[in-house]
Design brief:
This protein is of the alpha+beta class and 537 residues long. It folds into four domains: 143 residues, no CATH class; 105 residues, Chitinase A, domain 3, CATH 3.10.50.40; 98 residues, Roll (Chitinase A, domain 3), CATH 3.10.50.40; 92 residues, no CATH class. It has 22 helices and 13 strands. Helix 4 runs antiparallel to helix 19. It is extended, with a radius of gyration of 35 Å.
Length: 537
Amino acid sequence: MNYKFLLATFLFISIQSFSQEKNKVLFTIDNEPYYSQEFIKVYNKNKTLLTAEKTQSAESYLKLFVDYKLKVKQAKDLKLDTAQSFKKELKAYKNKLVLPYLKDESVTNKLVSEAYERLKTEVSVSHILIFLEPNAPPKDTLEAYNKLLEAKQLLEKGAKFEEVAKKYSQDPSVQSNGGMIGYFTALQMVYPFETAAYNTPVDSVSKPFRTKYGYHILKVHGRRPSKGEIEVAHIMLRGDSLKVKKKMDSLYQLLVDKKFDFGHLAAKVSEDRASAVNGGKLGRFGVGRMIESFYDAAFSLNEEGEISKPVKTKYGWHIIKLIKKYPLKSFSEERNRLTKKIEKDPRSNLIGASVINKLLRQYNIVENKSALEQLKNVNWNANPSEFKQVILTIENKKILQSKFLTYFRRVRNKDIETAFKDFKMKELLVYYKEHIENSNADFAATYNEFKDGLLLFDLLEKKVWNKSKDSAGLAAYFNKNKQKKYKHKKLEEIKGLVISDYQDYLEKEWIAQLHVMYEVKFNKREKKKVIRQLKRN
């Protein structure tokens, strides 16, 4: 049998049963039990690979299953799982494998659905901002909040938003725009700002809300259906003089008369040199990514290749060519793209927070308040390693003050209470990742299949692959079998086939040795029962 097929078949067979006390022992290897449920799961998962009659297939598969377990047993007995290279590669794999388990799928789905619904609409707003650091003390927080309430009360009395914004807002652009942001859609603003905009009725002012920048209120001016995204090219001349306008009109006529290709003309005369070198092409954009006059002119074009008349913006004059429009697709088509965007967006913290809340309920967590208070009242900076009280316990894992202090020194912009809260969440996730295979059967199945496959790799290299590279051994095997299997052929002509056969031979010899080294005992009654069950299925 070709070993590579065997490895591919059994890389996924080490499925751990989390209810083994309810399962029957199918066989033992040196008194170590292996359970029926594990074998049945593996067989059912891979029975499409089997072509023989069901009873024979199940029995043959059981033999392969036992042989695989013997190999794993020897690898562990040789302590190959203690090698640093093995531990390093296994840890790297686990860190990647655990990532999906750190997310709450239900929260992710909710955020994706919410974003898709919001993407159908564009909303126009103005805002007032009072700057506030994320870790600002309560006094500063209250002061900022009250200042914003004062502005809101003026608006409720009928004051114009623009005037109030210029008086109160600390947004640097407020004196030129009166707080006006204009139209935008989902996934363009920080999540709290987006949510306030979509939840506030038109012509209404929101309640004060906080983002990482500080406290805001906003007014919604209007809503309209989303236009999606667009790709265009443009030719731009800077300035607003009559001379510039006449030159742009002449360029437009050249394009209408088809005397120049748009891309060539853009490369030659456009004063937006960043896009000129690419034939005037701009990156794909949607609402809020370009100034409104340019955006409106671009979306007024309907046919691909259509060219606008000269359009004036604050940057100068433009001629715009439509390359392609990208309307919002169906939810099923957009789902994967939105999921990736949301996982990179700060709103993904809501997903992590949901997982944390579940873990807070799942684990026994004890905080040592006195150990934390001690750190507030002493100078620990000189010798942080001397602080060895247990400050936090998660299940049976005890975490010392010194470990928290190492973390706290890296985040000194936080007060000690906030830092400890964040530290606890961090350690909670660390504990979860360290022990996830004990609480999640799906993870354990995938993790252990890789672990066993990785464990066997070095052993198989020694027992099979390296030996098959030995030219003397290969030649001896060929000469012994050439009359029966390789009549009138030379080794060089069929070397690949001979190597494959030789690997099969070496593997069979190795398995035979394993059956001598270890004692395999079947529960005969259970074996018959399992074979009958698989035959019925």
